[in-house]
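Let's sit down with a protein and look at its sequence and fold side by side. Go ahead whenever you are ready, and we will take it from there.
>
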Amino acid sequence: MSVYKNAQIQFQNAVEKMHICKSAQNILLTHKKIIEVSLPVVLDSGKIEVFQAYRVQHNDARGPMK
């Protein structure tokens, strides 16, 4: 099972137990900003490998996002 699929299942279990309405679920599932970068890394062998890195920011209601 993928990490994303596992997170979806955990979210569904939590909202069912907490009786969160659909509109609040949509707010929780909607992101505010996605940052995507390419990250080059020099491996021990000297080879350069490029990895995709992601950061998703959902809500800044409690102040600046870290």
Q: What stands out?
A: The chain has two helices and two strands. The longest strand covers residues 33-42. The beta strands are 33-42, 48-57.
